[in-house]
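Holo prediction — FE2/S2 (inorganic) cluster.
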Amino acid sequence: MEKLQHWPAFQVFPVRKSRSITAVITIIRCSKPRNRSACSKWSPMEKVAQAAFISSAIAITQEVARESGVGCLRHHIFLCRGPRCCSKEQGETVWKYLKERLKALGLAGRGKPVYRTKVDCLRICQNGPNVLVYPEGVWYHQVDEQKMERILQNHCIQGKPIKNEAFAINPLPIHH
Ligand code: FES
Protein backbone atom coordinates (compact mmCIF):
# COMPACT_ATOMS: atom_id res chain seq x y z
CA MET A 1 0.00 0.00 0.00
CA GLU A 2 2.87 2.37 0.65
CA LYS A 3 3.75 2.43 -3.02
CA LEU A 4 0.27 3.73 -3.78
CA GLN A 5 0.49 6.78 -1.59
CA HIS A 6 1.96 8.90 -4.39
CA TRP A 7 -1.17 8.23 -6.45
CA PRO A 8 -3.32 11.15 -5.31
CA ALA A 9 -6.50 9.82 -6.88
CA PHE A 10 -6.26 6.67 -4.87
CA GLN A 11 -6.39 8.58 -1.61
CA VAL A 12 -10.00 9.69 -2.07
CA PHE A 13 -11.29 6.50 -3.53
CA PRO A 14 -12.49 5.16 -0.17
CA VAL A 15 -15.13 7.94 -0.06
CA ARG A 16 -16.77 6.42 -3.13
CA LYS A 17 -18.15 3.49 -1.24
CA SER A 18 -20.82 2.81 -3.84
CA ARG A 19 -18.17 1.20 -6.05
CA SER A 20 -17.74 -2.53 -5.71
CA ILE A 21 -14.98 -4.20 -3.73
CA THR A 22 -13.88 -5.88 -6.93
CA ALA A 23 -13.29 -2.51 -8.51
CA VAL A 24 -11.18 -1.39 -5.57
CA ILE A 25 -9.11 -4.55 -5.70
CA THR A 26 -8.63 -4.08 -9.43
CA ILE A 27 -7.39 -0.55 -8.94
CA ILE A 28 -4.92 -1.69 -6.30
CA ARG A 29 -3.68 -4.47 -8.55
CA CYS A 30 -3.38 -2.27 -11.63
CA SER A 31 -1.74 0.59 -9.72
CA LYS A 32 1.31 -1.51 -9.01
CA PRO A 33 3.90 -0.77 -11.72
CA ARG A 34 4.75 -4.42 -12.35
CA ASN A 35 1.11 -5.21 -13.04
CA ARG A 36 0.30 -2.42 -15.45
CA SER A 37 1.28 -4.29 -18.61
CA ALA A 38 -0.85 -7.24 -17.47
CA CYS A 39 -3.80 -4.84 -17.27
CA SER A 40 -3.67 -3.92 -20.96
CA LYS A 41 -6.50 -6.36 -21.65
CA TRP A 42 -9.03 -5.32 -19.06
CA SER A 43 -12.33 -7.05 -18.44
CA PRO A 44 -15.56 -5.01 -18.36
CA MET A 45 -15.33 -4.81 -14.56
CA GLU A 46 -11.75 -3.64 -14.78
CA LYS A 47 -12.79 -1.00 -17.29
CA VAL A 48 -15.44 0.18 -14.83
CA ALA A 49 -12.73 0.35 -12.18
CA GLN A 50 -10.47 2.28 -14.53
CA ALA A 51 -13.27 4.76 -15.27
CA ALA A 52 -13.93 5.20 -11.55
CA PHE A 53 -10.25 5.78 -10.93
CA ILE A 54 -10.03 8.39 -13.68
CA SER A 55 -13.19 10.09 -12.52
CA SER A 56 -11.79 10.27 -8.97
CA ALA A 57 -8.56 11.78 -10.33
CA ILE A 58 -10.50 14.42 -12.26
CA ALA A 59 -12.60 15.25 -9.20
CA ILE A 60 -9.45 15.79 -7.12
CA THR A 61 -7.88 17.98 -9.78
CA GLN A 62 -11.04 20.05 -10.02
CA GLU A 63 -11.11 20.51 -6.26
CA VAL A 64 -7.45 21.55 -6.15
CA ALA A 65 -8.14 24.04 -8.96
CA ARG A 66 -11.17 25.49 -7.13
CA GLU A 67 -9.03 25.82 -4.00
CA SER A 68 -6.69 28.05 -6.02
CA GLY A 69 -9.53 30.21 -7.33
CA VAL A 70 -9.92 28.61 -10.76
CA GLY A 71 -13.45 29.34 -11.92
CA CYS A 72 -13.53 32.85 -10.43
CA LEU A 73 -10.32 34.32 -11.85
CA ARG A 74 -10.09 37.75 -13.44
CA HIS A 75 -6.31 38.16 -13.62
CA HIS A 76 -3.33 35.85 -14.00
CA ILE A 77 0.08 37.26 -13.04
CA PHE A 78 3.24 35.65 -14.42
CA LEU A 79 6.46 36.73 -12.76
CA CYS A 80 9.90 35.89 -14.10
CA ARG A 81 12.37 35.41 -11.27
CA GLY A 82 15.46 35.53 -13.48
CA PRO A 83 18.31 34.73 -13.61
CA ARG A 84 18.98 36.49 -16.96
CA CYS A 85 16.63 39.49 -16.64
CA CYS A 86 17.43 40.00 -12.96
CA SER A 87 19.25 38.31 -10.12
CA LYS A 88 17.58 35.35 -8.47
CA GLU A 89 17.52 37.38 -5.25
CA GLN A 90 15.62 40.25 -6.92
CA GLY A 91 13.16 37.86 -8.50
CA GLU A 92 12.62 35.97 -5.27
CA THR A 93 12.04 39.20 -3.33
CA VAL A 94 9.30 40.33 -5.70
CA TRP A 95 7.75 36.84 -5.81
CA LYS A 96 7.65 36.69 -2.02
CA TYR A 97 6.10 40.16 -1.89
CA LEU A 98 3.48 39.19 -4.47
CA LYS A 99 2.50 36.09 -2.52
CA GLU A 100 2.22 37.97 0.77
CA ARG A 101 0.24 40.87 -0.70
CA LEU A 102 -2.22 38.64 -2.57
CA LYS A 103 -2.91 36.89 0.70
CA ALA A 104 -3.15 40.11 2.73
CA LEU A 105 -5.45 41.75 0.19
CA GLY A 106 -7.64 38.66 -0.03
CA LEU A 107 -7.10 38.40 -3.77
CA ALA A 108 -5.95 34.78 -4.05
CA GLY A 109 -7.50 31.46 -3.12
CA ARG A 110 -10.92 29.87 -3.36
CA GLY A 111 -13.44 32.24 -4.90
CA LYS A 112 -10.80 34.96 -5.37
CA PRO A 113 -9.88 36.77 -8.58
CA VAL A 114 -6.09 36.62 -8.97
CA TYR A 115 -3.84 33.69 -9.85
CA ARG A 116 -0.06 33.85 -9.66
CA THR A 117 2.59 31.84 -11.47
CA LYS A 118 6.37 32.10 -11.20
CA VAL A 119 8.33 31.33 -14.33
CA ASP A 120 12.01 30.97 -15.13
CA CYS A 121 11.90 33.04 -18.32
CA LEU A 122 9.43 35.15 -20.30
CA ARG A 123 12.01 35.39 -23.12
CA ILE A 124 12.64 39.11 -22.64
CA CYS A 125 15.77 38.54 -20.56
CA GLN A 126 16.55 42.13 -19.70
CA ASN A 127 15.37 44.85 -17.37
CA GLY A 128 13.64 42.40 -15.06
CA PRO A 129 12.06 41.20 -12.98
CA ASN A 130 9.48 41.00 -15.76
CA VAL A 131 5.78 40.59 -15.09
CA LEU A 132 2.98 39.70 -17.49
CA VAL A 133 -0.66 40.18 -16.54
CA TYR A 134 -3.50 38.53 -18.44
CA PRO A 135 -6.16 38.85 -19.78
CA GLU A 136 -5.06 42.35 -20.83
CA GLY A 137 -1.60 41.08 -21.80
CA VAL A 138 0.30 43.89 -20.09
CA TRP A 139 4.06 43.44 -19.85
CA TYR A 140 5.78 45.25 -16.98
CA HIS A 141 9.53 45.41 -16.48
CA GLN A 142 11.88 46.39 -13.67
CA VAL A 143 9.24 45.33 -11.19
CA ASP A 144 10.23 45.88 -7.60
CA GLU A 145 8.01 45.70 -4.53
CA GLN A 146 6.65 49.23 -5.04
CA LYS A 147 5.79 48.61 -8.67
CA MET A 148 4.20 45.27 -7.83
CA GLU A 149 2.00 47.06 -5.30
CA ARG A 150 0.92 49.54 -7.99
CA ILE A 151 0.14 46.66 -10.34
CA LEU A 152 -2.01 44.99 -7.69
CA GLN A 153 -3.83 48.17 -6.68
CA ASN A 154 -4.37 49.67 -10.12
CA HIS A 155 -4.43 46.77 -12.52
CA CYS A 156 -5.83 43.91 -10.45
CA ILE A 157 -8.12 45.72 -8.01
CA GLN A 158 -9.27 48.75 -10.00
CA GLY A 159 -9.01 47.04 -13.37
CA LYS A 160 -6.83 49.82 -14.78
CA PRO A 161 -3.56 48.58 -16.32
CA ILE A 162 -0.69 51.03 -15.75
CA LYS A 163 0.06 51.71 -19.40
CA ASN A 164 2.83 54.21 -18.76
CA GLU A 165 4.72 51.61 -16.72
CA ALA A 166 4.37 48.84 -19.31
CA PHE A 167 6.78 48.12 -22.14
CA ALA A 168 4.22 46.19 -24.21
CA ILE A 169 0.49 45.48 -24.32
CA ASN A 170 -0.76 42.43 -26.16
CA PRO A 171 -4.17 41.10 -25.16
CA LEU A 172 -4.82 37.67 -26.64
CA PRO A 173 -7.75 37.40 -29.06
CA ILE A 174 -10.64 35.27 -27.87
CA HIS A 175 -12.41 33.11 -30.46
CA HIS A 176 -15.89 31.83 -29.63
S1 FES B 1 15.14 35.35 -17.55
FE1 FES B 1 13.50 36.72 -17.11
S2 FES B 1 12.64 37.05 -19.07
FE2 FES B 1 14.23 35.63 -19.49
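READOUT: The pocket of FE2/S2 (inorganic) cluster is lined by residues 80, 82, 84-85, 121-125, 128, 130 (CB under 6 Å).
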